[in-house]
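re: ur msg from earlier - yeah i can do the zinc ion complex, just paste it... oh wait u already did. ok heres what im feeding in:
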Amino acid sequence: MGKWIVGAAWPYVNTIPHLGTMIQMLSADVFVRFLKLMGEDVVFVSGSDEHGTPIEVEARIRGVDPKAFTDAVHNYVINLFNKWLIDFSLYTRTESEHHKEFVREFMDNLYKRGYIFSKIMVMPYCPRDKIFLPDRFIEGICPICGYESARGDQCDNCGVLLDPTDLINPRCVFCNSRPIYKKTKHWFFDLSKLETEIKEWLLNHKTIGENVKTYCFEWLKRGLKPRSITRDNKWGIPAPFKEAEGKTIYVWFEALLGYLSASKKYLESIGKKFEDYWFNPETKTAYFIGKDNIPFHAIILPAMLMASGEPYVLPHRVASTEYLMFEGQKFSKSKRIGIWIDEALKIVNDPDYWRFALIRMRPETKDTSFTWREFFRIVNNELNDDIGNFIHRVLSLIYRGFNGKVPKPRNILDIDREFLEQVKKCYEEYVVRMYNAELKAGSEKILEIARLGNQFLNRRAPWKLIKQKPSEAASVLHILVNVVRGLVLCLTPLTPNAASKAWVMLKLGNKPKSNELKTAFDLILKPGHEILKPSPLFKKLPSDFLKLVNELISRARNEVLKERPEFVK
Ligand SMILES: [Zn+2]
Ligand SMILES: [Zn+2]
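and the outut:
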């Protein structure tokens, strides 16, 4: 049994996640459920990222305290993650005391070890609002791609990381004034000291994907420069350095440490030691992120861990996805393009359907569009016809033909053995894909097993064999019911509710136990084992769903408006 720490990028709680941001959280959950079923010892953490200028901007615009704002969104979002069946070890927040304390200590250590220095800088300052304008307090034209509304920290269009002084024609986001420039002292993390080590680490890394490496080497070409880690804004963790009064730690640095602080909190709560996991060279860490987050997880985080001088395990897997689009467009809160995770469950009220469909659309190798047509096809053809029907047909044949008891195999033909071998091959590929965090590719294998099952069922037609060659019928169904068990196990990480329902029908308990996926196609169900009367696991979406969907969306939007915290309506 190996130790794993799995993290999903901490959602920024200036708003509610939409389907595009939910992909990371969901992917991490599917991965974690898979690992646990393979008998691994997994800690799964995430939390609300709630500091920094975007939240302050939102709160200022609404005239509320940032803490009141993030309290409301954090609580609302936790409830939604529960509804989506995200099974965290701990979902916390960056405002929690344990996190703040961890960050202060970590920073203090980096400072003592000579990785942090201070420098007087000239920064944009709004003479009207009388504040400095870091990050998102300032917007202007991107010097790289010419995008009009690039922010002080990053361009949303081309993804380049920026300093406020890089912007062309900068303006204050609160009053549109042109900033003046003033001196202020800031602290920097000296990434340049770790350039060689980071390069070597990435070059020799066996489990970090080529897409991540390519992105990082692009960055490394420009050289690793010291990155500022303090900000002149109020909402955040006060910087722990001398003469840093009134300054906070840059949100990106402290949020990354959330993986550590949250797993520490969780492990201590169950009487285990943080060091046994994070300082254990056998522990594997995996991070589920969008591609815009790659440099933070594959360069900055490992650099911080290296700089600490402690034997932290460096990232084992950085599972980054491309972007999920919505019907060919970018998700946009301001333009109302997309579906948000609370609305989704009002439109189709079964988290399993969403979980399965989103993993099937997971943008693993290229940007992918969520479309309602594809959602409809996945739920009706794949989940219902291919998977659900196969399971239902097999269980019904046993229930009706053999009094609900798994029949005793008597006459096994080569064709039956070959079928089982094919299924096992698919399963082995499924396991490899899933360990690689290629979840969409893994789900492909689940469908392949179901389709092989349906083909075999049609070819062997046990409903005919029961009358003509009952001993062959018994052998066929004995294999098939075990394939059903294996299929349900493979499906469990994706559709945990339906899988539990199937587990109950198979009279195997409430849900699969840890380790059980390892024996997925091992003919565990013995002759005489009784099953319950089967009922279909999934329901089809109505045939006019695509015609009705716009109406369903507007109804869902009205409903969530009543439930969302006041600040995010
Ligand atoms: Zn740009
Ligand atoms: Zn201003």
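cool cool. The chain has a mean pLDDT of 95. ping me if u need the other ligands too
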